[in-house]
Design a protein that fits this description.
Elements: E1 15-19, H1 22-32, E2 34-40, E3 47-52, E4 55-60, H2 66-78, E5 84-93, E6 103-110, H3 117-120, H4 131-143, E7 148-155, H5 164-172, E8 177-179, H6 182-192, E9 195-205, E10 210-211, H7 214-232
Parallel strand pairs: 1-4, 1-5, 5-9, 6-7, 7-8
Antiparallel strand pairs: 2-3, 3-4, 5-8, 6-9, 9-10
Helix pairs in contact: 2-6, 4-7
Bound molecules: hypoxanthine.
Length: 234
């Protein structure tokens, strides 16, 4: 047990999928894993371990935002030995070519700062995905016929953003979408020599003021879980 995860030693797999929403973790575990067992419910941040095609997998909620994800990813890596961590979540589209339901595989994640920024001082560290996972996820996404974009995303600290000028700069520099967690996941994976990736579904679009109806979200989310699982074990 750690401060935020109640699982016993050995109850967490080396491969961990991390949706922001704990109820998404429950849904994904019940839908895609065999013999899924609840291994954490501290603070309601549900985690499950089961198997997918014979491979052990944990699906653990991360909560919203980098400070929350940082707590779970640190404990998963340092205390439970997680080796491969894949964020599965939603993002806001930023480029015209990005449409609702498209998949974004995040090569890099820009930020104003992460919970790790203090250690870098004046350095702008560039958090990036694990290449083998990224490559495998793109192949898996294309295999499903999903419209897939690969490139940089923006991990923001706020959902209700008061800096439209900053979003404009992100769009201008080719950033595909905005979410709130990936940069810290990539930074922690780099620090501890683990593999990390974020596979995202576009749930809204900042420029076009569109959002996915809630009934569509489950289907899109399912594609993302399968892409992450195929990438992890390819
Ligand atoms: N902003 C930040 N995070 C998000 C968004 C957004 O528009 N959509 C999904 N996650």
């Amino acid at each position: 047990m750690t401060i935020h995860i109640g699982a016993n030693p050995g109850e967490i797999a080396e491969t961990v999928l991390m949706p922001g929403d704990p109820y998404r973790a429950k849904w994904a575990a019940e839908t895609f894993l065999e013999d899924a067992q609840l291994i954490n419910q501290v603070r309601g941040m549900l985690g499950f371990t089961g198997t997918w095609k014979g491979h052990r997998v944990t699906i653990q909620g991360s909560g919203m935002g980098m400070p929350s994800l940082s707590i779970y990813a640190n404990e998963l890596i340092r205390d439970y030995g997680a080796q491969t961590l894949i964020r599965i979540g939603s993002c806001g589209g930023m480029q015209d070519k990005v449409a609702l339901r498209d998949i974004i595989v995040a090569m890099t994640a820009s930020t104003l700062g992460t919970p790790s920024s203090g250690i870098f001082r004046e350095l702008n560290f560039a958090p990036c995905a694990d290449w083998s996972l990224l490559n495998a996820a793109v192949k898996a996404a294309e295999g499903k016929g999903a419209t897939t974009h690969v490139g940089g995303i923006y991990s923001s600290d706020v959902f209700y953003d008061e800096r439209p000028d900053l979003n404009e700069q992100m769009v201008r520099h080719g950033i595909l979408g905005v979410e709130m967690e990936a940069a810290e996941l990539y930074t922690l994976a780099a620090r501890y020599g683990r593999r990390a990736l974020a596979v995202l579904t576009v749930s809204d679009h900042l420029g076009r003021n569109e959002a996915l109806p809630s009934e569509d979200r489950e289907r899109s989310f399912g594609d993302m879980v399968e892409i992450a699982l195929e990438a992890a074990f390819s």
